């Protein structure tokens, strides 16, 4: 890996994707599902054939129940998301749907706004706690590595790459939410936490090899440029990292295409996060260490 020669090219793709993700968040934001924002969900099925979605929307709009999001699901069903409904309002919503053909109510669930806010609060606490613990762990694990890059810098670089890995799927779902009505739910938060764990594992594998090569150089009294050590460490670990990620992505692709509708967004989040995490652990985290080391040398 010619880190010095190709360093700037490693940053182009993540920088472009990060800017696009931030722009998507700024334009559309994320659409929380009912388990995060509160509300009710009604799922119905038409065994004899699903009517057009436009017909469903027309029947629902005249009820004046506020915003009702109608989304096709499976081959013969619809999912309707709206504010919390009293029993009378639920029956009022079901009646025009029955008039469109033979209909079966699959499920109806309701979550209060206070519970949704509590879930969102706990989700942010979980993500923040994970980030803090990762920095603390890396700083402790690399405490004996102080030259030429201090141990705490490994932790900061790891968090920067994790932010990249989280930002990409979040930006994607902001785009899908604004263009296709995709919503984020508790499974989305679980997927983000999973991405954090898998991505940091790949990053630590590379960092640990850098630490090991630095230690060997010190024991052998061998002088080697830090960027050369980083490039050699990436070369030694790149095959392992890619093979591990590809096997996981294959399973996630099977879940996305063959799994139930309820886990499709979960699988998509993990697929995008795994791809972003694999790239960042190899071509972003370690090159950032090299840039930081160069910057520190210039200040001396």
TrEMBL record:
Subunit structure: Forms a complex with SecD. Part of the essential Sec protein translocation apparatus which comprises SecA, SecYEG and auxiliary proteins SecDF. Other proteins may also be involved.
Protein name (Swiss-Prot/TrEMBL): Protein-export membrane protein SecF
GO BP: intracellular protein transmembrane transport; protein targeting; protein transport by the Sec complex
Superkingdom of origin: Bacteria
Example of a GO MF term: protein-transporting ATPase activity
Function, in words: Part of the Sec protein translocase complex. Interacts with the SecYEG preprotein conducting channel. SecDF uses the proton motive force (PMF) to complete protein translocation after the ATP-dependent function of SecA.
InterPro entries: SecD/SecF_arch_bac, SecD/SecF_bac, SecD/SecF_CS, SecD_SecF_C, SecD_SecF_C_bact, SecF_bac, SSD
Segments forming domain SSD: 123-291
GO cellular component terms listed in the entry, alphabetical order: plasma membrane
Matches recorded under SUPFAM superfamilies: Multidrug efflux transporter AcrB transmembrane domain
Keywords for this protein: Cell inner membrane, Cell membrane, Membrane, Protein transport, Translocation, Transmembrane, Transmembrane helix, Transport
Membrane association type: Multi-pass membrane protein
Keyword Cell inner membrane: yes
Assigned protein family: Belongs to the SecD/SecF family. SecF subfamily.
UniProt subcellular location: Cell membrane
UniProt source species: Candidatus Adlerbacteria bacterium GW2011_GWB1_54_7
């Amino acid at each position: 890996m010619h880190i010095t020669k190709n360093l700037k090219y490693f940053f182009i793709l993540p920088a472009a994707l990060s800017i696009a993700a931030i722009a998507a968040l700024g334009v559309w934001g994320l659409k929380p599902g009912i388990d995060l924002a509160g509300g009710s969900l009604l799922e119905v099925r038409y065994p004899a054939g699903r009517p057009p979605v436009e017909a469903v929307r027309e029947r629902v709009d005249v009820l004046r129940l506020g915003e009702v999001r109608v989304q096709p699901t499976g081959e013969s069903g619809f999912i309707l998301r709206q504010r919390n409904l009293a029993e009378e309002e639920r029956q009022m919503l079901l009646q025009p749907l029955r008039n469109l053909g033979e209909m079966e109510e699959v499920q109806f669930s309701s979550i209060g706004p206070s519970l949704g806010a509590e879930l969102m609060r706990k989700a942010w606490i979980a993500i923040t706690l994970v980030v803090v613990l990762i920095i603390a762990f890396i700083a402790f694990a690399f405490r004996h590595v102080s030259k030429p890059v201090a141990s705490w810098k490994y932790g900061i670089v790891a968090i920067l790459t994790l932010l990249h890995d989280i930002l990409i799927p979040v930006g994607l779902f902001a785009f899908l939410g604004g263009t296709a009505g995709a919503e984020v739910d508790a499974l989305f938060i679980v997927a983000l936490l999973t991405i954090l764990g898998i991505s940091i594992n790949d990053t630590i594998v590379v960092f640990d090899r850098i630490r090991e090569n630095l230690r060997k150089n010190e024991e052998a009294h061998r002088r080697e440029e830090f960027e050369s050590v980083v490039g050699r460490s990436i070369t030694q670990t790149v095959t392992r990292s890619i093979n591990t990620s590809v096997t996981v992505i294959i399973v996630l692709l099977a879940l996305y295409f063959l799994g139930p509708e309820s886990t499709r967004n979960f699988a998509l989040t993990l697929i995008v996060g795994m791809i972003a995490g694999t790239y960042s652990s190899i071509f972003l985290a370690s090159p950032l260490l090299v840039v930081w080391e160069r910057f520190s040398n210039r200040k001396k």
